[in-house]
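Hey forum,

I'm writing up a methods section and want to include a predicted complex as supplementary material. The small molecule is zinc ion. I've pasted the protein sequence and the SMILES. Can someone with a working setup run it? I'll credit the forum in the acknowledgements.
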Amino acid sequence: MSTLRRGISSAAAGAARATAVPAVLISVPCTRTAIHMPRQAVPFGASPLLVPARRRVPGGLMGRQSFHVLAAAAPAVAPAAASTAVLPDAIVEKAHGFTLQRTQFVKEYGSHVLLYKHDKTGAELISVLNSDENKTFGVVFRTPVDDSTGIPHILEHSVLCGSRKYPIKEPFVELMKSSLNTFLNAFTYPDRTCYPVASTNTQDFYNLVDVYLDAVFHPRCVSDRRVFEQEGWHFELDNKEEPLTYKGVVFNEMKGVYSSPDSRYYRIVQQALFPDNTYRHDSGGDPEVIPNLTFEQFQQFHAKYYHPSNARFWFYGDDDPVKRLALLDSYLKEFERREVNSSVETQKLKRMPRSVTEYYAAGDGEEGEQKAYVGVSWVLSDNPLDVETELALGFLDYLMLGTPAAPLRKALNDSRLGAAVIGGGVDDDLKQPCFTLGLKGVDPADSDKVEELITSKLKELATSGFSASAIEAAINTIEFSLRENNTGSFPRGLSLMLRAVGAWIYDRDPFTQMQWEDALSSFKSKLASGQDVFGPLIHSLLLDNHHRVTVRLLPDPELAATTEAKEKARLEAARGAMKDDQLDAVVENTSALKELQETPDPPEALACIPALQLSDIPPTITKVPTSSKALADGATLLAHDLFTNDVLYLEAAFDLRSVPARLLPLVPLFCRSLTQMGTSSESFVELTERIGRKTGGISIYPFTSAVRGKEQPVAYIMVRGKAMGGKSADMLDLMRDILLTARLDDRQRFTQMVAETKASMESGIISGGHSYAGKRLAAQRGMAAALSETMGGLSYLESIRSLAKKVETDDGWQEVKSDLEAIRSALLQRNGAIVNMTADAATLSAVEGQVSDFLAALPAASAPTANAAQSWSNALLLPRTNEALCVPTQVNYVAKAANLFQDAGYELNGSAYVVEKYLGNTWLWDRVRVVGGAYGGFCSFDSHSGMFTYMSYRDPNLLDTLGTYDGSADYLRSLELSKDELTKAIIGTMGDIDAYQLPDAKGYSALVRHLLGVTDEERQIRRDQILGTSNKDFKAFADAIECVRGAAGRVVAVTSLDKAKSVLDEKPDFWEVKKVL
Ligand SMILES: [Zn+2]
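Reply by user p_vandermeer:
Happy to help. Structure tokens for the complex are below, copy them as they are.
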């Protein structure tokens, strides 16, 4: 029953874990997750929210990065209303070649769950029936590997590049352009490959399913070597005089992964924990090994594993259950049953602890700075855990590590042995559960101390146990998270599928994964009886378990150069071994491949992709029910009457413009300090436990955005919380206590948060450099972006570095402490405050009085700070220059931007969304990714500020990519789209505009629109403009983006020092070179 543990790990918001790679990075701005580049670009500029990354990321897809993603991310629905427990008449025992094996009503999700077997092939299907309109489909193959050439990952990319029924270059991209999907992507795990889609539109859903089924069973890539070369690897040589290079999308994607020390660390841990089974290899591909892969091996792998007898299928939602069977059978009936040996061997537990030392590519580092990663990991068992042990382990993990106040996490933080916790506890995405915990930013001389600290703290907890209040808080938090089932922008059906597959794939019972109610209630009684549940568990799974590995990852400033030299030597050797005619062949192949990639599919061929009609799109906007009320002293109350399953979602927003500019870099840490130092009457631990007991969580963060047509941005501090309706008063009491009486004087905790922030930003810039580059460019042009840069970009990192030094001295700390108080007194006032609530009508009316009491407790107006916003002058803007931000990396992130409102006099028209998406999915995708070999290339238009930004992700090129950007306007002008193509582009855009949302997201979106002054009238105008987009609009937009190529355009790239300098050889004075790491 790892359901519960999974539920728990997402509840334990901080614990980052997960094990797969998406095929396309839908560029999630500055996320720590950026696993493998989703294809769809969610433009960073369009969501100028400074929201903590983890809030945007579905719990299941965080952190560990052992999986690869083809593309990624869409928004969140009302919980599936519990349907009746009586099996609907529509269920058939036998149909379309399937026979029903089992049925069960799962009350936790109001769903009938049916297990079918396909008679002819033995393929299994789980068919979930409920009222959720966000329908989900998935097919999963077991794909264990015996080397690190990355076959399953390259295959995952390649099968989506054309198939028997859809014989075009990239059906996947066509679907991104033209479907209403709420999810479209693919993941490679260490032992399986997973292809999920989702949509709320039934016809659209079937279209997606059909394209995916044809892709996995009849892909073009197994007969066309060029797909393998494009997505995997090939030699590139434009003419015989030039040096040979490697190209390939996965090749570069993995170079990016291997440049990130965090990713390296988790890869080494997995390989060290499982020396004897498939997990000792990297299914994503090691860039040094990928070029050993041959096309023949690639073909054989597909033939062996992509077979119905090795497949598990999943359907979920409110569509016709019989139609599902028919659809699948139309593909499966062509195959014969076969034995496919794909099971994952169990790693036998070793009796002796081991240790592994490896190195990562570091910059020269500041003087005296040491940055080792040190952690301890266990494989917890070589037998599947029973339901009760799994449940207990989930609770144990949450109690030890689930919050910053949890004792084991707190001990690591307080130790000052390192900058930030890594690992974060239990990981159950693979066959055997593991546990990893450690620190990064450690002095290598202290590495033994990290291990000693972890074991001694575990011993202590095994003896002392946990306080009753901690256990109560854990129970409430975990239950809340399970019942709320808030999967954010991730479809609920997909979250449930990943959970079920986690057992199903290992031939364990997938049904138990979905049922937690009974086990939870019996576990609660056991806890209530006072039985020592946790002590024995800490002993048996951790302390007395010697299958333990200590992993040290040490900095090596030479490694980047060595790696590059090794690659060069391999290429030279390969070249040396080639005869003259072989070299000719490589040159010929390079140009043939490019020509193929640059030739678009003819419109007749593209017509094979099924598409909806414009008449399928509702012509009017969907409104979120909103009532607005002016409260005393200039406060406003917004309320949204939506079904939320008895949960109240509430945001209180305070205007940040009362805070003087010089204090802005402290604001993010001020927000964190509010919940992490305790209040006047309770300690940090007590406060954290009260939050856990009474609510589903409280978070505080700055929010900024440009407002179209205005020079001044909006900027707020958001205090955001959720609780069961009956606990609303407790939540508001908590918010009041936090705002008014939170202590801001815990020097040790503050110092720790500074170190943590620094470490996370330093890894972020290596793994997600595009968002730093984009922020930097926007901050040259607008105040809102300048605020974002100050509170979250490279400028913020610079402030954090000096803050780290400042808090070391007593005088410095005194100053910081009084600055934190100054922020509070400038910020806190009910004047101008906005409270936003989302719940059903009864809850809303019950809460209204409590909100008035909450506001009445705050000062009416803040201490006068002489109109602080005036200090947010243009001095905050960055100078308008080109910059190279240098870090140790094997890949580049290249951004170029200008402001269409200011530089081109562009007036916003809804068609801009259509053109922007089209440009990203055609010209930029084809040239930057397909031809250029980068993992991603996209553009984003911020319709509030006017910034238009091109970005590339894990890109081997620099100047060539800029050349592609500069060709965009001419490309758009050259287009003459047929009516069909235009319709597809419009529908694809509407899919983004009408993105599926859970009720909390609907209420929050309404708040954001209120803050930005976006009315329903305006939304309707934009919608009409989108629906009416014509070829003329493409040309008009081409004229607008001409300014990016022209004098107004600026470039910022995250790259290596060597590459930055080599650009200067070619173009002296091109940019300022700035060493960041
Ligand atoms: Zn990938």
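Some notes you might quote in the supplement: Residues 238 and 587 are 6 Å apart (CA to CA). Confidence is low (pLDDT under 50) at residues 1-66, 71-83.
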